[in-house]
Design brief:
Blueprint lengths: L5 H22 L8 E6 L2 E6 L10 H16 L5 E6 L20 H21 L5 E5 L3 E2 L1 H4 L6 E5 L3 E3 L13 H9 L1 H8 L5 E2 H7 L4 E3 L4 H13 L3 H12 L3 H19 L2 H12 L2
Parallel strand pairs: 2-3, 3-4, 4-6, 5-7, 6-9
Antiparallel strand pairs: 1-2, 7-8
Helix pairs in contact: 1-11, 2-3, 3-10, 5-6, 5-10
Length: 286
């Protein structure tokens, strides 16, 4: 049929390329605006994903900013705990699919090459962060914003948060070490429901599945979480670091291997017909 024909394939490629020029024109004015904020108080470093107009979706710049913040916070002894949260109604809507928008031949492969390296670096930053990472999931989380929760040491969610990894429908595969971490957390059957079947979890289900530690009312979420995390940040730095190393250290080799395997597969998927057609539908939807 048409959707498996060469005509549809060419339409998908043309649509993705054409969207590139429009996306760059719309976003060029804000290209240099920070996509995250970082503050520090009494040992607690707070990293806020700050693209609320795009539901805190990850673009190239946000990936780099998060990597840089993790690196600086890891080296700064005045930061004892790192908390990640979102600005506005969303925690993060995952990857900004306009990153797939290109305007020249060969651009898709170049983006896939760039994305593979960047994603591996990004996930490694979470794997190797030596201090406790706390996710404060203030609203809906999608894709990479969900999978990296398995690399956090504590996860708290608002009762209005949801958790969705629609990888298959986007022609993609799991990332963020979720291919090994999610089965370990929730069992293989439930992990497959989330990663393969794309089941969206509400906060209560995520808690039941073991992805979230506690769920709090949206009305009091921020102060409740910050009080709890602030108490953790008041503890001695080395005790926190050594404790985390004992818990996480034995997993590191498996996580590094999973990250490499996932990035290799995504590098192929990003150039595939499945992914390009899904991206074209997204970018051209009304």
């Amino acid at each position: 049929d048409y959707y498996s024909s060469g005509d549809f394939w060419m339409w998908a490629v043309r649509s993705v390329r054409a969207a590139g020029a429009a996306v760059r024109a719309l976003s060029s004015a804000a290209a240099d605006a920070p996509t995250t904020t970082f503050t520090q108080t009494n040992g607690l470093g707070k990293l806020v994903l700050n693209r609320p107009a795009r539901f805190n979706a990850f673009n190239w710049q946000m990936y780099e900013e998060v990597i840089q913040t993790f690196s600086k916070a890891a080296a700064d002894d005045s930061v004892r705990v790192l908390m990640v949260t979102g600005q506005g109604d969303y925690y993060s809507s995952g990857n900004d699919l306009t990153m797939f928008a290109v305007a020249k031949a060969g651009g898709i492969k170049e983006l896939a090459d760039r994305g593979r390296v960047l994603l591996q670096r990004f996930v490694e930053a979470w794997i190797d962060f030596p201090k406790p990472i706390v996710a404060a999931v203030n609203g809906p989380a999608i894709g990479i914003a969900v999978t990296t929760l398995g690399l956090c040491d504590l996860v708290y969610a608002s009762d209005r948060a949801t958790f969705h990894t629609p990888f298959v429908s986007l022609g993609q595969t799991p990332e963020g070490c979720s291919s090994v971490v999610f089965p370990a957390i929730m069992g293989s059957i439930r992990a497959n429901e989330v990663l393969l079947a794309g089941r969206k979890l509400d906060a209560g289900e995520a808690h039941k599945y073991g992805l979230v530690g506690d769920v709090f009312s949206a009305a009091t979420f921020a102060p409740t979480v910050e009080a709890r995390v602030g108490a953790l940040a008041a503890q001695p730095l080395n005790t926190l670091k050594y404790g985390k190393a004992l818990v996480r250290g034995p997993q590191r080799e498996a996580l590094i291997a999973a990250n490499i395997a996932e990035c290799d597969r995504l590098h192929e998927r990003w150039q595939s017909r499945d992914c390009l057609e899904a991206a074209a539908r997204f970018l051209t939807r009304k």
